[in-house]
Automatic annotation (TrEMBL):
PANTHER family: GEO12009P1 (PTHR45663)
Species whose genome carries this gene: Paenibacillus rhizoplanae
Name of the protein: Thioredoxin
Keywords (A to Z) from UniProt: Disulfide bond, Electron transport, Redox-active center, Transport
Ranges where the Thioredoxin domain occurs: 1-104
Family that this chain belongs to: Belongs to the thioredoxin family.
Length: 104
């Protein structure tokens, strides 16, 4: 499976999947977001089909960003069965991301 890119118009539908969904809020001008991107890609490849990974650009999707009170990026939210469980700001090492997902 690949990383999915959400928009305000389809975000709610995309996170409604059963199981764990990791959502990354980012922007193209954000240096830390660019540094986190390869970590997220590696995490997604290792997770295979067990975890859905979604990226959403805060500049292009202000409604969703506001809904989840995203004030700093990168921001990572973990959803289970469509419900937000956890929010982490900043770059996460792959092992830390793996541990967060396992604990939810």
């Amino acid at each position: 499976m690949a990383i999915h890119h959400a928009k305000d118009s389809n975000f709610k539908e995309m996170v409604q999947a059963e199981g764990i969904t990791v959502v990354n809020f980012w922007a193209s001008w954000c240096g830390p977001c660019r540094m986190f991107a390869p970590v997220l890609e590696e995490f997604e490849k290792e997770a295979e089909d067990s975890i859905k990974v979604i990226k959403i650009n805060v500049d292009e999707n202000p409604v969703t960003s506001s809904q989840f009170q995203i004030m700093s990026i990168p921001a990572t939210l973990i959803f289970r069965d469509g419900k937000p469980l956890y929010k982490e700001l900043g770059i996460l090492p792959k092992d830390a991301l793996r541990q967060l997902v396992a604990s939810k």
